[in-house]
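Whiteboard transcription, Tuesday session. T.W. wrote the structure tokens on the left side:
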């Protein structure tokens, strides 16, 4: 698959998702019920972050037992992380930042990948390797919507998935920006609700969020 085809595939996936929950799985036994609760609420595209020791097994369990879930791996920090994600067979990868080594590995990989950027220089590095869809992170801390619009001036063809400070109250505002294809965040699955096993509550948050975004 060409670099352009990979980016187009990822853009279509993100546009269809609109909202991508950022999942930090602490207990493997939470993975499947969490995925089911998100899918039941209309949220199918899930980012499992490599922030815990059970992340890979959690993603594997979600793919095996929740076929309607579209599972990706986030917090990819180096080529080894990328290789683990690709071997697992997930649909996409996301990084909070970029390095030359990671960009090279992502270029050589068949896995659709969104590097993280916060500055124009980082975005130029990504574009030089063919990545025109990027995670804008940390979105609010990196200038918020004003920062995103500033990047849109010299880079009008780049598409973004802002993450970091995006929540239920401001998701619609971010999605209204013409260069935003989706937003990411953890508000759809609060840690307290996951620890309590309140799967119905998480489903309700997803339904409420999607209803509000549709109305907006």
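and on the right, the sequence the group agreed on:
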């Amino acid at each position: 698959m060409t670099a352009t085809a990979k980016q187009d595939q990822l853009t279509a996936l993100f546009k269809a998702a609109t909202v991508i929950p950022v999942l930090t799985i602490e207990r493997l036994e939470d993975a499947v019920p969490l995925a089911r609760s998100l899918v039941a609420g209309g949220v199918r595209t899930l980012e499992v972050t490599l922030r815990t020791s059970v992340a890979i097994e959690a993603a594997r369990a979600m793919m095996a037992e929740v076929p309607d879930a579209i599972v990706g791996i986030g917090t990819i920090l180096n080529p080894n992380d990328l290789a683990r994600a690709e071997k697992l067979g997930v649909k996409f990868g996301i990084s909070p930042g970029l390095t030359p080594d990671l960009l090279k590995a992502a270029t050589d990989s068949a896995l659709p990948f969104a590097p993280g950027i916060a500055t124009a220089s980082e975005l130029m590095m990504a574009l030089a390797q063919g990545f025109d869809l990027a995670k804008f992170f940390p979105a609010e801390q990196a200038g918020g919507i004003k920062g995103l619009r500033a990047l849109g001036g010299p880079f009008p063809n780049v598409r973004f998935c802002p993450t970091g400070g995006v929540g239920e109250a401001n998701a619609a505002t971010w999605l209204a920006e013409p260069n935003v294809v989706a937003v990411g965040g953890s508000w759809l699955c609060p840690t307290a609700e996951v620890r309590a096993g309140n799967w119905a509550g998480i489903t309700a948050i997803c339904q409420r969020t999607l209803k509000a975004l549709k109305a907006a």
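Someone added at the bottom: The chain has one domain: 3-211.
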